[in-house]
Amino acid sequence: MVHGGTPQKAPNPRWAVPAFIAGTVIAAVAVTLVSWVLAGPPRDLVALLVLALVAVVSQVLRVTVLNRVSLAAGSIISLAACVLVGPVGAALIGALPMAADPGLRRTSVRVFNTAMGALLGSICGLVYIWAGGATDLTTLNGAGDMLVHVGLPLMIADVVQSLGNFMLVGGVVWADQRIPYRPFVLQLLTTSGLAQIGYGVIGFLFVILWVPAQVGPFSAVLILLPLFVARWAFVQYSEEESAHERTLAAFVAAAEARDPYAAGHSARVAQLAVWTGEALGFTATETTALRYAAMLHDVGYVSVPSSLHARQTPTPSEWVAISRHPDQGVAILQDIAFLQDSLAGIRHHHERFDGLGYPAGLRGLDIPLVARVVAVADAFDALTTDHPGNPAYSTSAALEVLSARAGTQLDPDVVRALARALERHDAPPRVPVAPHDQHPAQTVRFDHDHPDCSDHFARLQPEPTRRERG
Q1: pTM for the whole thing?
Q2: How far is CA 453 from CA 95, 318, 457, in A?
Q3: How far apart are CA 417 and CA 415, in angstroms?
Q4: Quick one: 267 and 325 in the same domain?
Q5: How many helices (H) and strands (E) does the chain have?
Q6: Is the N or C terminus of the chain more exposed, i.e. has fewer CB atoms within 10 Å?
Q7: What is the CATH number of the domain that holds 368?
């Protein structure tokens, strides 16, 4: 059963779930008996045994290895069964994997899923026959006959089976948690409906391989093995992405630990940067590199003395330490393979469009685009965050400040892209900071990301250097 965090109304009576399950069991038995009367017993016992075995194995493997791939495999096998073994056979193949599923520890869940599998299998088989589906594929001639007498009826049966699945799941969730039925079913339709249509197409190919192509039971391997391999690859990719996220979280926590007012800064800058990148037309790969750079842009700031946070004006030696923190960040991260495309954005996010930034004094379009985007997002978040001594600007006021700095501190195109992005999105929310014992309340906080600090650093540049860069 599905359990969600949606707020619940008054609970349904305790008998609601047992009653719904009992109704599903009665319907499954009744429809399967009707199927036996109308279409007879299962056809082709060899096909029935093979399909049942594959369905059970895929469901068992799902629990420990393949996760959701068995859902796709189960739908495909059930659809193929409608054609190859008839409605009663499809009911058996729909029920057996659920009855054998080792992941279902609650008897009520096992009974419901088993009954639902049988009910949907028999309905699918009956709809296939009602829609004109052929039961003897050896009598068909050519691709046209296969499409008309197998493909089209099978797709109709697929749609009906999918709707029945969504409706039954929505019904039991409503009975269990009183989650509104219609919105829940519509959500299932929008998130899983297209995938179900895809399963129908694959089921049709399964049938073609089995009978017209005379591949027989081996067609199960040809159809389902690629699904298992693809799912395995997706699982590996997902686990790798999870490892990346854990790495990011650890670095961000270290960077923000010494300053309570920095909490959430990295995540907000990353969100603003991603939105800006979308407005600039970044690809998915570029967006990932941009997000990582934005999340970790200040990781090197751990090298700066923590006493600086409570001072309004840094000492000369502290200015030197501040100017080195982007390089320090790159030094910390340079051996991490998945961050290689983000290092330039981290190193150069404090460069200025007029060439008076740090650490390399790059100018204009010589600054990597990722770094220019992070710089704008970083400055916006600094302006709109309430710090001691630096009250927060509104979104519109902050954008005015950034626009005034376009062409000097910031890239004008990136500033405009952020403004377009914030027309579609609300600025990321902030959680009020309550300084704890290690960080007593401050009357002032130095924020190196604030645009005023960038201007101050620019004024510190030797005059010949300023003229040369200008």
Answers
A1: 0.57
A2: 68, 13, 6
A3: 5
A4: yes
A5: 18, 0
A6: C
A7: 1.10.3210.10
